[in-house]
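Input sequence (63 aa), recorded before submission:
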Amino acid sequence: MANAGVIAATGDAAPDTWRRLVGHMLRSYAGPGAEMPPLPESPAPTALYRAMIRLSRTGTSTA
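Predicted structure, C-alpha cell format:
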C-alpha cells in the first residue's frame, strides 16, 4: 500500500521513485551484518515539486 501511494503521488513526474522506497524496505528487512544494497538515486527536487503540484491539482489523497 505504501508503494501504491508513492506511485499515485509521483506518477509521471518522478516515475522511478518507487524503486527508492523498495530499496529502503529491503534494507529494513536485512539481518545484522548483511551487505546493504545501494539505494537508487533520489528524485530531483524539481520532479518532486511537479509531483506535488500534480497531486494537489487532482485532489487525490495518498493518506
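Checked by second reader. The CA atoms of residues 6 and 18 lie 6 Å apart.
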